[in-house]
Structures are given as structure tokens and as C-alpha cells.
Write a structure and sequence with these properties.
- The protein is α+β, with helices and mostly antiparallel strands and 163 residues long.
- The chain has helices at 19-25, 69-81, 132-141, 148-161, and strands at residues 3-7, 13-18, 29-37, 43-48, 54-56, 59-62, 88-96, 102-111, 127-130.
- A hairpin with a 5-residue loop joins strand 1 and strand 2 (13-18).
- It is globular.
Length: 163
């Protein structure tokens, strides 16, 4: 069973939890997300297998106990999409995802190297390059097609780029 740091609203470690416990009792824990863009500015949107095909971050995953956001997010980027390049940290913020799920998100981004090619794998079967305006329009009109975490990170991303 993979363990995660339980954190408070200020992202201070206050204990240890695991996925099932955290997601059923509302214990706040860390997640990393990466927005991977292509060289024309389109965002690679993941078709999230475990949620039944909802649209999700390019990369997203839990940060293991004792890991930093940078280390855990880099690990997830390599596991899910084979991305090995450096990632730019954008923000760390609280995300209430309804029901009992709460995450502290470390949000990162990169522009995929031209030599990178997505290879479907056990973690990710499909990614779709989409214009940000198309994603936002779809999120506004059909939010049920997206994970709640992706909706929250997109709101944070838009807040950051509008500053």
C-alpha cells in the first residue's frame, strides 16, 4: 500500500495516510499535475481510464510519502507519458473536489520536446491535443466530462495566466 503525507491547508505535513483512507475520510494529501503542451500551444488532455473516460490533466498522480512535488510529479510524467524533460512549477494550491476528496495540487507545465512521441501504456491509453479555448468552453458547457481536479487546476492555470 502506497503511503502519502497527510497535510494541512498550509501544506504542512501532519501525518500519514493512504489513497483509500484519504479519499473516503477527506484527509488532505498531495497530488501533482502537469500540463503538457505541444509546440503549437495545444494542451494534451488525458482520457482518464480509471474514471471511465473523463478528460483529465496531461499527467496527474499522487505524491508519495516523503517526496517533494517536483520529484513526484517528474516521476508521474515519466510513468504516464514518457516525459523526461524538466518541468516548470506554476503553483501549489488547495483543491476541494467534492464528496470526500481534497488535494493539495502541485501544478507544473512543459512544452513537449519535438522528439517526444506518446506511446499508449498501462497508465494512459489516449491523449488528445486540444486548444485551451476549446477545453474551457467544453468545461463550461459539459463539466461532467472532466475530472473535478482538472476543472480546479484549469481555474488555477487561468488565474495565473491572467495576472
Amino acid at each position: 500500500m502506497e503511503l502519502f503525507d497527510e497535510v494541512d491547508i498550509n501544506d504542512n505535513v501532519i501525518g500519514v495516510t493512504h489513497k483509500q483512507e484519504a479519499h473516503t475520510t477527506g484527509k488532505l494529501h498531495r497530488v501533482g499535475a502537469v500540463y503538457v503542451f505541444n509546440d503549437t500551444g495545444k494542451l494534451y488532455v488525458q482520457v482518464h481510464k480509471k474514471s471511465g473516460g473523463l478528460y483529465d490533466h496531461s499527467v496527474g498522480g499522487h505524491i508519495s510519502q516523503g517526496e517533494t512535488y517536483a520529484v513526484g510529479t517528474k516521476r508521474e510524467a515519466e510513468e504516464e507519458l514518457g516525459i523526461t524533460q524538466s518541468l516548470e512549477e506554476l503553483s501549489v494550491f488547495y483543491s476541494d473536489e467534492g464528496t470526500e476528496m481534497q488535494h493539495m495540487f502541485g501544478l507544473y507545465m512543459c512544452v513537449a520536446d519535438r522528439s517526444w512521441v506518446f506511446i499508449p501504456n498501462d497508465e494512459v491509453e489516449e491523449i488528445i491535443p486540444m486548444e485551451l479555448s476549446e477545453i474551457i468552453k467544453l468545461m463550461n458547457n459539459e463539466p461532467h466530462r472532466f475530472t473535478r481536479g482538472f476543472i480546479n487546476t484549469m481555474a488555477e492555470y487561468n488565474r495565473l495566466i491572467s495576472q
